[in-house]
Amino acid sequence: MDRKTRIAISGAGIGGLTAALALLQRGFEVEVFEQARAFGEVGAGIQISANGTRCLFALGLQQDILRCASQPSAKEIRHWNSGNTWRLFDLGAESVERYGSPYLMMHRADLHSVLVRAIQALRPEALHLGARLTDFTQDADGVALRFEDGSARRAHALIGADGVHSRVRQRLHGDDDPQYTGCMAWRGVIPAEALPAHLRRPVGTNWVGPGAHVITYPLRNGELMNFVGIVERAAWQKESWTEQGTMDECLADFNGWHADVLGMIERLGRPFKWALMGRDPLPRWGMARVTLLGDACHPTLPFLAQGAMMAIEDGVVLARCIDGCPDDVATALQRYERLRQTRTAAIVLKSAENARRFHNPALASTQGADTYIETEWAPEKVRARYDWLFEYDALSVDVGAQALAEAA
Fold first, then answer.
1. What is the mean pLDDT of residues 20-34?
2. Which partner for 77 in 86, 106, 141, 404 could form a disulfide, CB atoms 3.0-4.6 Å apart?
3. Catalytic amino acids?
């Protein structure tokens, strides 16, 4: 194969678009197939730690991202009821000094738009909307794709970046519906002008409490405040994994919480509620010319803010592996999978550990919480918890044949 190697990507989320852009910049032909008929204001906030901004900036997106991102000065922990505050870690200049890249907070739709525009500037015909993949088969020469509207395409490789309900995963590994994790999330954004001054500070805040926690942080240069409230619930009764909720229901889930939290909920308008879904780790992601990326292969709880970062890293490492072995795409995909499995599995595990930390029963009382927080968020524990995440460099990971042997 030459640089006309054609890569098909199912799913135009952040991971799929990152992979597409990285491959296009390396001269490959890429087509992205997205089942939605239009790109919209999907989702709410996203935290982009140094391991993510390092990748995105290397793709030439720095100016566009900085134009619409918020750059917080710090992250902090607050107690659900008393409002007592502890510093989690400093950001801003310290992130650049320690990890070589900034920690940013963005509206997910803004990052999505930046990626879409960058792809359209290189190859406008690369993006296909309203293209729902229904099936595929592969042979020695490539992959045949079939879509709901009856159309067909052929590529040298297929990347399933189609989320937790991945069709590509289902066709590779059979039916294994994602399982409800026992947690659901309330999500929404608040106009910053509607908040009192002390809640408009440029910081990310983790409110921690027994059985629930709340995360808030600024978006769009401080114009909006992102709100995510995670609650433990025994079951998810709805067929859809996301739906609109009501303010009253959200307030009831946080009954007894600090007035600052309740005040933010009252300003949410009509929030969305999401079931947090998960799957058991796969011993193998792909098969020959087909593999998976992002939530399709390693869905995680959002308690380390690394779900989208893993997808971004996946996209960059995938592109580098294919670039390093363009004449044997099956080997390239095998290298990618081997290089990414250990790290992503560790993040999934550590995210689950953070869920237990954020929701610990010791947080119920103010006195017990003081001791628990000062112990669990001691500076040395915070460094151990986050440094390995932020220091990772998807741009310099060895993607050669020796790397595959070492990862085996």
1. 97
2. 86
3. 217
